[in-house]
Amino acid sequence: MFFMPHGETDSSNTRCSRVARWSALAVIVSLPILALGLEKIREKPAGSEHTCAVVVAGGVKCWGANASGQLGDGTNVNRNTPVNVFRLSEGVAAIAAGAEHTCALTADGAMGCWGANFSGQLGDGTNVNRNTPVNVSGLSGGVAAIAAGAEHTCAVVAGRVECWGTNASGQLGDGTNEKRNTPVNVFGPSGGVAAIAAGSEHTCALTTGGAIWCWGANFSGQLGDGANVNRNTPVNVSGLSGGVTEIAAGSEHTCAVVAGGVKCWGTNSSGQLGDGTNEKRNTPVNVLGVSGGVIAIAAGSEHTCALTTGGAMGCWGANSSGQLGIGTNEKRNTLANVPGLPTVRPSVRVRIL
Q1: In a domain, 338, yes or no
Q2: Which of 11-20, 187-196, 201-210, 308-317 has the highest mean pLDDT?
Q3: Given 8, 121, 140, 174, which residue has the most CB atoms within 10 angstroms?
Q4: Between 4 and 243, whose confidence is greater?
Q5: How far from 133 is each of 7, 51, 60, 116, 182, CA to CA, in Å?
Q6: pLDDT at residue number 272
Q7: Cα–Cα nearest to 81, from 57, 51, 59
Q8: Is the distance from CB of 160 to CB of 208 less than 8 angstroms?
Q9: ∠ CA 238-242-244 to the nearest 5 degrees?
Q10: Which of 36, 19, 23, 29 has the alpha carbon at shortest distance from 297?
Q11: For position 165, which CATH number holds?
């Protein structure tokens, strides 16, 4: 269980600037143990200007910007070294970071969130920012997976999806465009959801049958349904009614592992679809240079990475900050192998948020 807020804050940033900063800066790669050299970190997602990690003991540490309380330490002071999240010293199984909010999933299936709450993205029934974790209304157990977009949050509960937060683009999937400060059921898949992924303003779900449903913003074709129309209920991704084993969502693009290969769709200005062009696509296209054997993918704002069964890693897309790890700052529109990495254990998940 989580705890009542230790303090309350508000943020003076506008919604547009928050989303823009999440899109531009949420590009950190997490390769626990190997790439980061942090032997006690299991998982490390990043928001726009803050980062959090689940340590081996099951506690959470965060660092970076803290104006909205997104570090969860009971203050609003920026931190350049990790601090403990208030009363989350053990029992955390996973975390997700939005633009200015963070959520944690406990080993017993409960969920709590902290940080910005102007759109209800914490799910506690208020719109008050929190600098310590609060319980998500109605989700004291049974949660299997979580994901955070810029200003919305979703969870897999008993095989279905529930979402809350901003909803201007339909990213909550409840058939409306009204923001919600408590979880609502997503229309469409009524059961059998195995995983979820959230982009800046869109959400996708992977079913146990290997199909993908997406909803929300679609101006760049990130829903993959062959149109560029926003959807406030789930639509099937064209051609992917089965066979999908992994999904990932960037700011405005989405990718999937299909039969050991990778397909992507959405915006492509930085080559993040990996199809050898810079043209946006509203249906899935194959990533070039992937010969098979991909078991995991992760998407940053404008880049994507894939991990193979042999432990090799390749990336493509934006590279202005060196996020592809290929020794240059040139963007790539096809897969480029990441050199110099020790073999990445298949059991280690790749996360870029």
Answers
A1: no
A2: 201-210
A3: 121
A4: 243
A5: 10, 16, 11, 11, 15
A6: 98
A7: 51
A8: no
A9: 95
A10: 29
A11: 2.130.10.30
